[in-house]
Structure formats: C-alpha cells, structure tokens
Amino acid sequence: MANRTENSLRCSISKRPNDGFMLLTATFAGIVIGFLLGISFPTLSLTKMNFPSSILPSVNIVHVEDEKLEKSATLSPSKGLKSSDAAFHKIWVPSNPRGAEMLPPSFVAAESDFYLRRLWGLPKDDLPVVKPKYLVAFTVSYEQRKNINACVKKFSDNFTIVLFHYDGRTSEYDEFEWSKRAIHVSVPKQTKWWYAKRFLHPDIIAPYEYIFIWDEDLGVENFDAEEYIKLVKKHGLEISQPGVESRKPITWQITKRIPGIEVHKEVKEKPGHCKDPHLPPCAGFIEIMAPVFSRDSWRCVWHMIQNDLVHGWGLDFALRKCVEPAHEKIGVVDSQWIIHQKIPSLTGQGTAQNGKSAFQGVRERCKREWTMFQKRMSRSEQKYLKEIASASSNSTLT
Ligand SMILES: *[C@@H]1O[C@H](CO)[C@@H](O)[C@H](O)[C@H]1NC(C)=O
Ligand SMILES: *[C@@H]1O[C@H](CO)[C@@H](O)[C@H](O)[C@H]1NC(C)=O
C-alpha cells in the first residue's frame, strides 16, 4: 500500500513529555483506587476463597481480579502474586479466534475495515457519522484512468473505493479529487482475483454490506450504484451483476440486459447448454467481469478462490455453491446496466514465450485454470462424500 508519509509522521513517544506526567498521575490514581477496593471488599478476593480453576464462573472475572491483585501488589509487595497464583489466573478462552485464546475476549479485534483515520485528536472522532457501508474495488491501469474516474463518480460517498494497480502507476491518480480517500494497492502484473484473495479477506472488509469487484473497461452511463443496491435488496440477490450491453457477441445469454424489467434470474440458452433450467449457464450464474457480492456470500466465495488460479475462470460456474437456492439468489439487474467495452488490458501484460504471443500465453493459461478449478472442485467433493459415506457405514456397523 502506498505509504508516502510513514517516515515523517511516525509517532515519536520521546517528543511528548506530558505523557510521562499523565502516566504517573494515572498510576497513582490506580494505586489509590486499588487500595480502597482492597480494604472495602477484602473477602471477594478469589485467591483467599481458594476455588479450583475448573469452577471459576468466567474468565472475565479472573481478568478483573488480576488487575486488582496487580494494584495491591504494587501497594504492598509482601502481598504479591505467588507463581502458582499466576498460573491460576491465566486467560484461556477457546471461543476466541484461533491463536488469540490468551487474550481477554472483549479486547480481541477480530475484524477490520478500510476507514481512513487521522493522526491527531480522539480516535472516536476520526470517522464520519455515516460510515461507508459498501465497497467497490477496481483493478486498474493508468491508461484507463478516464474510464475509472467515470466509474467512481457513479458510486456515492457510501462506498469505500479500492484501486488495485497492476501497472505500478499509483500517484498519477492524484489528479482526481476522490483519489485521496481511496485505498491504493500497487502490485505489478497481478489479476483481480489475485488481489481479491490477498486484500479483501472477509474479516478485513467486514463492515461492508455489499462488495463490488469490477474490471476497468466497463461503461457506466446507465448505472447508479445506490439504485443498484436498492434493487438487489428488493429482489433478494446475494450475488449479482448489472445487465450487459455489448456491440460484440455476448458469451453467456444470462448476462445480457433485458430492457424494460428490473431483474432477471434465468434465461433460455442454446439447446444442450443447460442440463437443468435452474443450473448454469441458464440460472444461478453471473460472469466474473462485474460481480457484486453480499457480505455473507463473499465470506464463502473468498474461500473458494484458489491462490494459484489467478484468472478466476470457472469461478462463475461455482458461485452457486455459496448460496441456497442459487437460482433465486443469483441474478442480473437489468434497469441499472453497463456496457462491456472489451478493451484488452491485463491480457496484454504477459510475456511472449515458445513462439506464442503474450496474449496467446495468457489465454491458454485462463483455459487451463478453468479445467484445473473444475477438477479440483469435483475431486474435493468426491473425497468429502466418500469420507461421509464411510463414516456413516462405520457407525451403522457398531
Ligand atoms: C447513503 O446512505 C444513507 C443511509 O442509508 C442514505 O440516506 C443516503 O441517501 C445515501 N447517500 C446517497 C448519495 O445515496
Ligand atoms: C471406517 O472404518 C474403516 C475400517 O475399519 C477405517 O479404515 C476408516 O478410517 C473408518 N472411517 C472413519 C471415518 O471412521
């Protein structure tokens, strides 16, 4: 992430003499309170009651007692903790996130956000009263800045904007006013799904209700993001995309905009394309060019993205595994629609090799990844089903 100000603005404790004084005052106040508590409730001390650790009601109480004991230990060193007492008061909360079991639960910060904060003032006053509740991420090059600017303008202040720069040209975006409040991530020649897997973990973007993960070559003249979200909510779509208009042929019929309606969830494909009218590509299906995920569906889809299959081909056919029933919760919004400009971008960023052009090389990898994704998924499903079957046959034997 761009961090131009790191050196000049890093907090320097030694420059703030007042803090030392405040700390002393706070410590003194703590000692006095601890002393008063100690003399008013002497019988409450857990160590004196000598409970075995297994019947302690809650770890929180242990924690509070711990604080009190520390203070009284400061007051009179003779009453200090014995090493056995220290073990007695150890925090261990199995329901905490993995690895954080030794921390008091109410202190654990398991989730994060992309909200920008100030370096001064009170932390509670850093954020606007209405915090952004949606997120849009574009994977961009500098060449497409005009189109990205047009896209960003279709997203209100209720959106956090994330730009993944695959050509390393980040600061050039500063010509746009909104760039200052955007999150810029710059890693050369990586794909949208590579970035999404690494920088959009569901716990990191937990406050956002909807997540747009979009390509850079979409025309948005007929699109408004707030209106789009209203429709998505109204029709119960967990995974969606705007309808697409394109001068060139469209690969999958379901993505094509149907004028005059708000939303569609299924279409007729060419004969033989769909085994079942409720299955992709006839239903339960959108493309990976301009997907929109609800918070819950993204939690599942993020887990489905394979670290090495960076082009994301095949992902669209598997999205239906993340929502139930897929043919009702996956759909296309027709009344807020986009134009696919089909400008070759990242596909031109490969390396010519073995007599194949850069474009050919990338294309081949896309197709190979699609096969690999499908194979991996079906093998994993079979493995799981086999394990389930053998477990249940074992249990019926006994
Ligand atoms: C942002 O969200 C708030 C609260 O839901 C809403 O009142 C407001 O109209 C939204 N802003 C825009 C520009 O739509
Ligand atoms: C079921 O039993 C077989 C043979 O006893 C054993 O190899 C296998 O691990 C068992 N499976 C499970 C899930 O317990």
From TrEMBL:
Membrane-spanning parts: 21-41
The protein, known as: Uncharacterized protein
InterPro entries recorded: DUF707
Lineage of source species: Eukaryota, Viridiplantae, Streptophyta, Embryophyta, Tracheophyta
Record's keyword terms, sorted: Membrane, Transmembrane, Transmembrane helix
Domain of life: Eukaryota
